[in-house]
Specification:
By secondary structure, this protein is an all-alpha fold. It contains 15 helices and no strands.
Length: 403
């Protein structure tokens, strides 16, 4: 094993006695633990606000820039119902809209994120005209995304799935089909066509769909196969049953076959080093594909692989890289919450709470400081997002990714 992670200092779940300080038999967090989370959230928020004064003024992205901070405040507004958080979200999304890329079309790294977040913030402020305007700008990108001979990749950070998430985000927050299903369906169809094209060219006989990013066949959630298949298996996108069974399922099984004996997954197809346990590369991202495959195809093997991922995260998920979402325990803990929400097994809620305890000691473990120390995906904003999500664990979803 490598030294990218700290040794997990916590005892594992050992029945109800081990959770008394954290939650009751119904899975509700204790008032003490909730208070602890809330206190730490407000301390970290103040710290983050101070730190953001030195942040890059021209980063519009949700990943490391202003849209990510807007997303955090929108999330806090949903969690606490506090109107001042919505005003903060508006302030930050406006900063983001001033520096759009004009090139990248995704939720996390491009223009779709700021536009979708702006549409939702204005919708919540009951400003219909502004909201519609941002949705129209978002849909204006659609043609370039579904165009088949474009150079656009299919993955989450820079490709089609990242645009698809932005459409879903709008519908989620509007509570209705504000953006018609056909838009999602066309993006999925383009991704399937693109995957078939590469799948037929390359000698991956077992995987009818194949995707690359910068000439590498990535496996994980951010740039790779697991993230793409996770989206193609979402029932609300209307991928037809035939394509699911003949194209998506065997491709998912191809990823399953890449599993290391440890239960972890390689960053790329053909890679033999078992050293990354991040949302972006490894078990903490692949787990969502496995859970979704289990829900759709009802086969126990996917459940078994998902619980193996959870074991890897528990033993190797307290990373030295920091506390963030993309490569840190805050992001890794969402794997436990996804398992908890699927199985209602208290072990997973316990593990998520323990990773939260680690995050509550932010800065005390001697981790590296990320390049953007206060951002959503690398820094403190993401940790705050996770701690706020834990206040209502059954509603928790990995931000900008989980459906």
């Amino acid at each position: 094993m490598d030294s990218r992670a700290f040794k997990n200092p916590y005892p594992d779940y050992d029945g109800p006695a081990s959770t008394e300080q954290l939650f009751d038999s119904a899975g509700n967090l204790t008032s003490e633990f909730i208070q602890h989370l809330r206190n730490r959230i407000s301390e970290l928020l103040q710290h983050m606000e101070k730190g953001l004064m030195k942040a890059d003024q021209n980063d519009c992205s949700s990943y490391t820039g202003w849209a990510g901070i807007a997303l955090l405040y929108l999330h806090l507004h949903n969690a606490y119902g506090d109107q001042s958080f919505l005003q903060k979200a508006l302030q930050y999304v406006n900063k983001s809209l001033k520096c759009l890329t004009g090139r990248v079309v995704t939720f996390l790294c491009g223009d779709a994120g700021p536009l979708a977040i702006a549409a939702v913030v204005h919708h919540k402020l009951q400003q219909t005209q502004e909201s519609d305007n941002y949705i129209n700008q978002l849909l204006h990108l659609h043609q370039s995304v579904v165009k088949l001979n474009s150079r656009l990749p299919d993955e989450m950070l820079y490709g089609r799935m990242g645009y698809l998430y932005a459409l879903l985000f709008v519908n989620d927050h509007f509570g209705n089909e504000r953006i018609p299903l056909q838009y999602m369906k066309q993006v999925c169809n383009a991704a399937i066509t693109s995957g078939e094209k590469l799948g037929s060219k390359k000698s991956f006989s077992k995987s009818p769909l194949m995707y690359e990013w910068y000439q590498e066949y990535y496996v994980g959630a951010a740039h790779g196969l697991a993230g793409i298949y996770y989206f193609l298996m979402q029932t609300e996108f209307g991928v037809d049953k035939d394509a699911l069974l003949k194209l998506v399922k065997p491709s998912v099984d191809f990823v399953c076959d890449l599993k290391f004996s440890s239960g972890n997954y390689p960053p790329c197809v053909g890679e033999s080093r078992d050293n990354l346990v991040h949302w972006c590369h490894g078990s903490p991202g692949v787990i969502y594909m496995l859970i979704q495959a289990y829900k759709i195809f009802k086969e126990e093997k996917y459940m078994k692989d998902a619980s193996d991922c959870a074991e890897v995260i528990w033993h190797r998920g307290l990373l030295k890289k920091g506390y963030g979402l993309c490569h840190g325990p805050a992001g890794n803990a969402y794997g436990f919450l996804a398992m908890y929400n699927l199985t209602r097994d208290k072990k997973y809620l316990y593990r998520a709470c323990k990773f939260a305890e680690w995050c509550l000691d932010y800065g005390k473990h001697g981790c590296r400081t990320p390049d953007t120390p206060f951002s959503l995906f690398e820094g403190m904003a993401g940790t705050i997002y996770f701690l706020a999500d834990l206040l209502q664990p059954t509603k928790a979803k990995f931000p900008a990714f989980e459906v």
